Amino acid sequence: MLTKIFLLKGKNPQNLNHLDIYSYPEDLTRKEDLNFIQKIISGHEKGEKYKPHNLNNNNNQKLDLIQKICKEFTISSPVPQNIDKYNIFTLCINSTILIGLIFEEDDNPYDYKEIFEDLANELLNAEKCCYFEDEMEIENFLITLFIDIRRYGDEILDKYPKISIHPAGISAKVFLFGIDNAGKSSFIRRIKTGQFNDNYYSPTRKFNIEYLQKPSGVYSFWDMGGQFIFREQWLNGIQESNIIIYMIDVANQIRFEEAKKELWNIINKYDFSDALLVILGNKVDLIKNINNPDNHQIERIENEIIDFFELEKLANIDWKFILTSVKTNYHIDEVVNIVLNFV
To answer: Which of 74, 93, 112, 117 lies at a CB distance of 3.0 to 4.6 Å from 97, suitable for a disulfide?
Structure first.
């Protein structure tokens, strides 16, 4: 499984003091990592010779002409490395930028060779999504590449880490998203471990996949960060989902308009015809004056939220709205049953 992606940029990669280092979802900038980075750079230079992707390397005049006219990036073939028990795949962009993938020890980088080359070429030369000049642009490029390659490993290569037996039966993808601080990661922990801790999670700053194994099959829960920088990636992660869960913090009405905007942005861009949309109004326990709520109070809150978010306009979409409290375990079993019985 892909665990990390990084990008090294500099006119002289050997000079680490003048090397720009980007990585996702964790940093590679600690002092103790510099020796590791030096090994990666040296290992790449000793690896496969430079070969532009989808171009004839022997025709230098044609290559120079294409670069001048189209500003097309030249992309080398990936070089596999094994450093400090990590499997690493690196490719070079324009001889000055190194992009690397770090996999778990039992992964074979060559399984990802074609997708790594194709995605890099598509993002840089077809979509032209990054020119490596702006820090935010680089971060978005790395997140996009990470999500697409991680999804390839999860869905195409059919890898199920941390699961010893792949049972007979269905496998389903559950995509969980929403703006930050709604309780998404706490929800995942609750259904996997049955536990909740107020101080367990800081805001999610990485894309994560968790697996739930049941007699009916394996369920992968894709947990996407809710900060603004991650929202452009929601459409990448949501593809081919069976159940889509959007979580709202019902106790924070100040952010209702923001949450509504982001929900409808996805609804207007994604085809939900083959998926179930479950909208969770989480943190109901934090609403004022709702200790031990009766059915009338719950119905009133549900109707108010449905009206505000205009959920009745969800035409031709199979959807459900459920009030929940991850903290008190309120209606969590109901949500899990919906997921397990949908496919």
So the answer is: 93
